[in-house]
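Quick check before the chapter quiz. The format below is the same one you will see on the exam, so make sure you can read both the input and the output lines.
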Amino acid sequence: MKTDKLIEQSIFIITEYYKNNLQPFFDHISDDVLWLGPAERQQIRGRNPLIQEFAAEKHALTFTIGDIKALCVSPHIHVKEVLLHYDIYTHYPSGNTDIHDQRLHFTWREKRIKSAVGQEYKPEIVMVHISNAWKYDSRDTIYPVHYEKVNMPTRFVTKPEHYVTIRGTDMSVHLIAANRILYIETVKRATKLLIHTESGTITANGTLPDFERSYPDVLLRIHASYLLNPAHVREIRRFFVTLSDGTTLPVPEKKYTQVKRLLLRENGEA
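Here is the expected output.
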């Protein structure tokens, strides 16, 4: 089992899950899967019982998933543990939105199967552990349909249109909403980058040209050492730009006119 492929598959499963598309999840769970769910003391053993519980679930909830950080460890040649850490916004029919800092743990194993070419290995999920348990109403099945905090405020959440994948130097993988990235800068004399976001900085592997080619609709090159998100530009003057967090970045004199024109166009001012 290749680590990158399993992380990619785990992220796909969970993002589809929160779109209320459970099929990719069901397609990958083993017959003896163990579900340790988000409700207190919720344990379900076996593929069929778990599918039956989800079939009995009736709710009108929708969800928005925030940034995802993924880590993977391999305790055995045929077993990998994938940990996903993310914010999940639960939108209730009342108009309220609740946010949880969620940790989800997939245990993957390789199952040996017979095929036309002999024996092969197929990855399957044998345990799902959602480690931060919610207090549930006794009427709930899987989701907290009846759970809302007293006087819980409505939170306005902008659903991201684009995500950026970042591979950290600590072997983590981050799926970050593009609108949360402020700017990216190079680490001198190293093929490493500092990804500055609204919630902190990630040290990542890669180069500015890699990100510039991969996300041309999100990031703009303003300098040999900087890419920025035009949505966070608050001011441009000779020869600097100021971002929404107060950061000031230089713009070379030779590029200033072109960068200013592009930024004004991005912000609908030209």
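If your answer matched, good. DSSP finds five helices and 16 strands in the chain.
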